TrEMBL record:
Domain ABC transporter positions: 22-271
Protein name from the UniProt record: ABC transporter ATP-binding protein
Protein keywords: ATP-binding, Nucleotide-binding, Transport
Region (Disordered): 272-291
InterPro entries: AAA+_ATPase, ABC_transporter-like_ATP-bd, ABC_transporter-like_CS, Oligopep_ABC_C, P-loop_NTPase
GO molecular function, one term: ATP binding
Length: 367
């Protein structure tokens, strides 16, 4: 669902040179090893980039344990991948120092799931806003700082006199979450990574918070990576979508096409699992049974991770992991059902958000 292009960013903070990504993951893999337990791959060879020139809104969806939060932590510089790299302006995030590190901390911000854990209960909520102003030197005087804070609060639907001077427990969950959005607006980053930002607020506030995120994207040119398990809100606010399963990208592309015409069997399962808002057609809640014949092969990582649940499993699915195949100009799926179509050239899922440019790789059949 394409939206009008947002205004250009402020001249005082010029955009990155044409063609260079702002933030990118290059084959990022995160493995957890536990004594006495098998190896757990939380994220596998993720290649993904956010443009430094054109603000975007990308949703990342998948069930619990799919690797969504691991992806967020890696992109935020909070957890270095076991292998691969996360780069900001072409530099490894985990090797940044001095001015480069400060720039990364300013330009890439986060909104977390729990709107209470981000606060220190010993400080009033003002502390969340005054610290970045001081750290990033956003104001020349106390009066300027006050004006910035009041403007940011009003932009997210909060009244300064009813918000400032209070402790976190004195505000509702929705107010606390909107405060974290206000902090992001105050800093004016280029990218906000929002990890389940509305999962812990009631339905009446979800629309308000999501509307604010859309406003930041449209009016202020801030890109978003919106991580959620909710397909409905992903469809509502995002332009592009990435579907994760067991740490792997199984489908990606333009959100309207992926939701309405899902190609990968797992995405089809996710979409079909959403209850129909029709009382005459009750949802059975039935899920497909696992395929015991291929469960062992899938668990060892030698084949498709979804093979043990897939109704279309083939012999090749047990032996090899499927690459991303281009199924449409704005869609790709990691499934051997589409092996007659071209592969995504570098494995970068960002390429599925626009038509191919340059030479396509041949299909498996052609090789």
């Amino acid at each position: 669902m394409p939206r009008p292009a947002p205004p250009q960013a402020s001249p005082r903070r010029p955009r990155i040179g044409a063609g260079r990504p702002l933030l990118e993951a290059d084959l990022a893999t995160q493995v957890y090893d536990s004594r006495g337990q098998r190896r757990n791959v939380a994220l596998s060879e993720l290649s993904f980039s956010i443009s430094g020139d054109h603000p975007s809104f990308t949703a990342v969806v998948g069930e619990s344990g799919s690797g969504k939060t691991t992806m967020a932590r890696a992109l935020l510089g909070m957890q270095e991948p076991t292998s691969g790299e996360i780069r900001f302006n072409g530099k490894n995030v985990y090797k940044l120092k001095g001015a480069d590190q400060l720039e990364f901390r300013r330009e890439v911000q986060a909104i977390f799931q729990d709107p209470f854990e981000v606060y220190n209960p010993f400080y009033k909520v003002d502390h969340l806003l005054t610290v970045p102003i001081r750290k990033f030197r956003l104001a020349r005087s106390r009066a300027d700082a006050g004006n910035l804070i009041e403007s940011a609060l009003r932009d997210v639907g909060l009244e300064p006199k009813d918000t400032l001077g209070r402790y976190p427990h004195q505000l509702s969950g929705g107010q606390r979450q909107r405060l974290t959005v206000a902090r992001g607006l105050l800093i004016r980053p280029r990218l906000i990574i929002a990890d389940e930002p509305v999962s812990m607020v009631d339905a009446s506030l979800r629309k308000t918070i999501l509307g604010t995120l859309e406003q930041l994207n449209d009016e202020f040119g801030i890109s978003f990576v919106y991580i959620t398990h909710d397909l409905a809100t992903a469809y509502q606010v995002s332009e592009n979508i990435i579907v994760l399963y067991k740490g792997l990208v199984v489908e990606a592309g333009e959100v309207g096409r992926v939701i309405k015409q899902p190609e990968h069997p797992y995405t089809q399962l996710l979409v079909s699992s959403v209850p129909e808002p029709d009382p005459t057609r009750p949802w059975s809640g039935e899920m497909p049974e696992g395929n015991k014949k291929v469960s062992t092969a899938a668990a060892t990582g030698t084949g498709c991770a979804f093979a043990d649940r897939c109704p279309h499993v083939m012999p090749i699915c047990v032996k090899e992991r499927p690459p991303l195949y281009r199924t449409h100009d704005e869609q790709a799926a990691a499934c051997f059902l589409y092996q007659e179509t071209p592969r995504v050239v570098t494995g970068d899922v960002s390429q599925t958000f626009q038509p191919f440019q340059g030479k396509e790789q041949p299909s498996a059949k052609e090789e």
